[in-house]
Amino acid sequence: SQQGEEDPQALSIQEGENATMNCSYKTSINNLQWYRQNSGRGLVHLILIRSNEREKHSGRLRVTLDTSKKSSSLLITASRAADTASYFCATRGANSKLTFGKGITLSVRP
Amino acid sequence: EAGVAQSPRYKIIEKRQSVAFWCNPISGHATLYWYQQILGQGPKLLIQFQNNGVVDDSQLPKDRFSAERLKGVDSTLKIQPAKLEDSAVYLCASTKVVGPEAFFGQGTRLTVV
């Protein structure tokens, strides 16, 4: 079963704009991670936030976590055409089980 | 550091045939995952190994799917017999024991006709 539920399902923005993606989950977690998948490729890890953290930054990425609402958001600032991809949130729970959501398709128009 | 290796990259089989996928995780990674990703969906966990023991196989269709991890390193995933709905990309991933991110292979795209 899917643990995470991303929102929106699809997002289209202009290059240079910011992209915000949301993820909600159901059960308690040890950490939450975001991955990117380019068409026909494997998933690439972007950023991880632990359950006792509220915000994390990495380059143009900013992730927040609200464990009381069981939700997370990923912000990509100053988007580029190369950011076009599918984005997935994944939760790590007990026994290191890593469960993915359905994904968000991001299109960045040049 | 070498990444997660998977083979074959592509496979086309007829329904009711059998197929096997191979995965070589990153050296030293104790945890290995097999995921099934149907087109347009997120990866669905099929089985998780810790060294050569199974941690979670609750979503593995055990009547047709089997997996093993020999000596806690390489792993194979087998489907026998295949159904049309098994058409998907099969992804292998590995991590260190706990906490950090998963590293994924390129996947095997299976088409059942």
What's a quick, concise take on this entry?
Chain A is mainly beta. Chain A has strands at 5-7, 10-14, 19-24, 31-37, 43-50, 55-58, 61-66, 71-76, 85-92, 98-100, 104-109. Chain B has 113 residues and is mostly beta strands.
Structure description:
The complex is a heterodimer of chains A (110) and B (113). In chain A, 0% of the residues lie in helices and 56% in strands. Chain A has 110 residues and is mainly β. In chain A, the strands form 2 sheets. In chain A, strands 2, 4, 5, 9, 10 and 11 form a 6-stranded mixed sheet that branches. In chain A, strands 1-3-8-7-6 form a 5-stranded antiparallel sheet, with no helix packed on it. In chain A, strand 9 and strand 10 form a beta hairpin. Chain B is mainly β. In chain B, a hairpin with a 2-residue loop joins strand 5 and strand 6. Chain B is globular. The relative contact order of chain B is 0.34. The model of chain B has no long low-confidence stretch (mean pLDDT 93).
